[in-house]
Amino acid sequence: MKISDNGILRCGEMMAYYDISGCYILRPNAMKIWNIMRTYFDAVLEKAEVDENYFPLFVSASVLEKEKDHVQGFAPEVAWVTKAGKSDLNVPIAIRPTSETVIYPYFSKWIKSHRDLPLKLNQWNNVVRWEFSKPTPFIRSREFLWQEGHTAHATEEDADNEVGLVLEVLDHYRHLYEEYLAVPVVKGMKSENEKFAGARYTTSVEAFIPETGRGIQGATSHCLGTKFAKMFDIKFTNKEGKNELVWQNSWAYSTRTIGVMIMTHGDDKGLVNPPKVAPIQVIVIPVPFKDADTKEISKACCAVKDALREAGIRAKEDLSDNYSPKWKYSHWEMKGVPLRIEIGPRDLAKNQVRTVRRDNGVKADVPRVGLVEHVKELLGKIQQNMFDVAKQKRDDACVVVKTWDEFVEALGQKKLILAPWCDEAEVEMDVKRRTKDEVGAAKTLCSPFDQPEIPEGTLCFASGKLAKKWTYWGKSY
Amino acid sequence: MKISDNGILRCGEMMAYYDISGCYILRPNAMKIWNIMRTYFDAVLEKAEVDENYFPLFVSASVLEKEKDHVQGFAPEVAWVTKAGKSDLNVPIAIRPTSETVIYPYFSKWIKSHRDLPLKLNQWNNVVRWEFSKPTPFIRSREFLWQEGHTAHATEEDADNEVGLVLEVLDHYRHLYEEYLAVPVVKGMKSENEKFAGARYTTSVEAFIPETGRGIQGATSHCLGTKFAKMFDIKFTNKEGKNELVWQNSWAYSTRTIGVMIMTHGDDKGLVNPPKVAPIQVIVIPVPFKDADTKEISKACCAVKDALREAGIRAKEDLSDNYSPKWKYSHWEMKGVPLRIEIGPRDLAKNQVRTVRRDNGVKADVPRVGLVEHVKELLGKIQQNMFDVAKQKRDDACVVVKTWDEFVEALGQKKLILAPWCDEAEVEMDVKRRTKDEVGAAKTLCSPFDQPEIPEGTLCFASGKLAKKWTYWGKSY
């Protein structure tokens, strides 16, 4: 679904609009999903011996502007503090749009010897990018939450291999999307035009929203090379006693993850939360027909909820007496709870419950005996089905094109396009220009690591030159 | 110890100075302590059904200025964003110094009926107070991390009793200080002058640093009454169908906690971390005398470390070969590791280790058999001893005074002063004025909840009027 359709996000209590344009309130359901992901990623970081730190929100202009490519990429979006109380500051101070320039001057102080490497740090923080294009909750907001990891290494090889974590972290991002959020993503390499400002190369996980026909960058992991090291003079004495520049990497994922999840799974009834991250996994609702023993039914609801909770399932009962069961069904469907359990007089008599899946609406009568195990399995099935359905939709939206005409046609049909490309920055710029007015500017999403074979002599769909690789193209968020 | 003495903080790798005055880098050891406390407090919040949310960093001027007392308190320290990219903003936007005015307009939208109450929210975030007085790491910084809780209730009674959490949360703050950081604190009520800007009343936990003779507010929990509700129009329909204002509370603790811990326990050798929050609880160091079997000793060190880790103790070994054992002792003492284990050839032969406590330097030979249990106990003893010693020092620094002369004398002697007071704001202002030039301005810290008896006819030490309560006074951070 499109984000902010029909106030679904607000009703789903994921976010609320705020009186400053482009800023949004993250409500408890969004924070619960965020924290579940954070717990996973913190364990990853601990295992990889990445330490948590916290650098300031502010960065001085002179430091921010040190790495030219980097600042060019971010300058148009930087928010500036120029006043405190009633006093004008002597020098304006920037709010971090990302922390490379905040952190690296200190890498230069802390790294002296090869014994200080690798240095691996991460922080959980807010960043500000004052975008002037249309803001969208979760997807493109002026302030957002993320983690940013920064590492320094003795050699190019270390930066590129598993010590450097670039591809390892990227795979954990994939894991978060696919296993937690049930969103299929493609791992790949960004083009020269689309890489991070100042990076040697950028890898990413890319998702696609079939309904809007737009790709979306899910998270990125960058190899920075020695560019920042040169600018910030980050050198170490190697084992031979010589001074060398460090090789650096950085990587981040943000609250955008939640937006991609919402767009991938949401439907006409509202949110659909994958069980693994759902703040409430099971909602238990009493269905007291006329003359039924309301008290016994409520008791059964609580007992079921308690049993589920004891087994570690995030269950809740809704015993409120001012709404009808039907109203409650819609309410909890809108909030995206993956599984509903209904208990009425007939269920009570038969010692069973009625289960209703949010993902496909399938209903079933399930005996109370063995219910907890059954629910566990069912949640696993829902998680898998949500991924499978999303993957099928994504795959259905994907076409392989070989010519410009096919490309333009596919773009008009909101497709995710895989095309042979000459990998020239100028050609990508040209594609952007040529598609801008017709169907909306297309760009590269990524060149997948998992490359189909490229027969000799295959030509670039756009330039007619020899193609070097398969690349995903599309309109994007 | 005084914070920032001899670069101890930097060497202890708790923080680093940053190129913007008043902003500091929180390094991994500080973040580990912060996260251990956060884990405790998050569990408290979950049990109390306080939901986590995240409100924006920015607040518009018109909203910030709505509650007059509140804005007067914070206005001099507010940082203003006036530019984004190259454009001037139409209206300057403030960075939150705290989030009452950020959050409460939305309480007004979300709270409609008595069924929506109580509303209990918390967020973990950064706030900015652009202080112009001398900044100190952890204690007074321009940006700091904290949690801020905000609740709304149907009645004054609910706001004041356990539903409102004011005193419950305050006791958890005491718990964090006393049980985690081994810092004794006093729970009490702030004076009219010292209460939170806009609050009905403010409660706090107060610590005292004998070495500097200054009190320090550890954390605060406020009863806001209906003041913000009036300004932001936060009303609900009660059970009788009538509109009423909500009663509100807010409470916060910040990274200042870590600063208080450092000042309380630090000594000439560096930091002393209480075991409960120590990032490393036990450091294991090999002591290979000449001709000793270095390999076997290293192996023993690793085995001990592994056994401790398996039991959930945060242990680490230092096998680096470029430093002497003596250098390592100083290094890990400076970092504040509560317990050192040394293993030399003699220990190896006797199947024992040498333990050295950071808090009191006591050394002991301990058999390898049963070592893990022994270390667990020892860490508990160190934790308790650190608290006992700190409490003894604090108590020794406390004097009861009854006259102005005694008060001034005690103040000159860097004492924590308990005095009978008439509880009049004007008198506190007067005490501040009268002490300012002589020995440094004194103010109230708090009136302890645990009040000694006040004999009838006892007079205020400052005004000579009838005393209403015992109150702690002192210079303060």
TrEMBL record, chains A, B:
Its EC number(s): 6.1.1.15
Catalytic activity: tRNA(Pro) + L-proline + ATP = L-prolyl-tRNA(Pro) + AMP + diphosphate
Membrane-spanning intervals of the chain: none
Matching Pfam families: HGTP_anticodon, ProRS-C_1, tRNA-synt_2b
Statement: the UniProt record of this protein carries the keyword Electron transport: no
InterPro entries the record matches: aa-tRNA-synt_IIb (IPR002314), aa-tRNA-synth_II (IPR006195), aa-tRNA-synth_II/BPL/LPL (IPR045864), Anticodon-bd (IPR004154), Anticodon-bd_dom_sf (IPR036621), Pro-tRNA-ligase_IIa (IPR002316), Pro-tRNA-ligase_IIa_arc-type (IPR004499), Pro-tRNA_ligase_II_C (IPR016061)
HAMAP family in the cross-refs: Pro_tRNA_synth_type3 (MF_01571)
Keyword entries, A-Z: Aminoacyl-tRNA synthetase, ATP-binding, Ligase, Nucleotide-binding
Entry-linked SUPFAM superfamilies: C-terminal domain of ProRS, Class II aaRS ABD-related, Class II aaRS and biotin synthetases
Protein name, entry field: proline--tRNA ligase
Nucleotide-binding recorded as keyword: yes
SMART domains with a match to the protein in the record: ProRS-C_1
Residues annotated as domain Aminoacyl-transfer RNA synthetases class-II family profile: 22-274
